[in-house]
Amino acid sequence: xxxxxxxxxxxxxxxxxxxxxxxxxxxxxxxxxxxxxxxxxxxxxxxxxxxxxxxxxxxxxxxxxxxxxxxxxxxxxxxxxxxxxxxxxxxxxxxxxxxxxxxxxxxxxxxxxxxxxxxxxxxxxxxxxxxxxxxxxxxxxxxxxxxxxxxxxxxxxxxxxxxxxxxxxxxxxxxxxxxxxx
Length: 182
Prior knowledge:
Organism: Paenibacillus algicola
CATH topology of the largest domain: S-adenosylmethionine decarboxylase
Low-confidence stretches: 120-125, 173-182
Protein name: Lipoprotein
């Protein structure tokens, strides 16, 4: 009698374990299907400075910090063509923004920058100053408006130019490799 009870308990635990593992596997598959796992991994990699542009972004933030321009509220987007846009506020000021665009090639960068910033830029009827610094397949855009319009223009032109000339940026599948693997 004791043996059959032990066998039943073991069978029950085994069935419970398999069901639990199956549920875990199903949950992971759902996360992969809806992109949640990819998005979480991408955000984690960006925050930890991994990915092909991680070292550049770290150097960039330090360089701006050294000039008294803390870059805050970091966000990024990746387009279907592989281009990447990183966006920051300067010192949490909504009217002082820096955007870094990284394109697959120089031709794409030139076309996109012309489309985005080729004409006069206005926002809600008030002037929005857009300063572009471009090099190869990348571009910095400094957007400013209001009372402090253009406050950091000269510093940003200098820093952005130095950064773009001395560092290589990568578009495309930027989060699947480590900087150390280059």
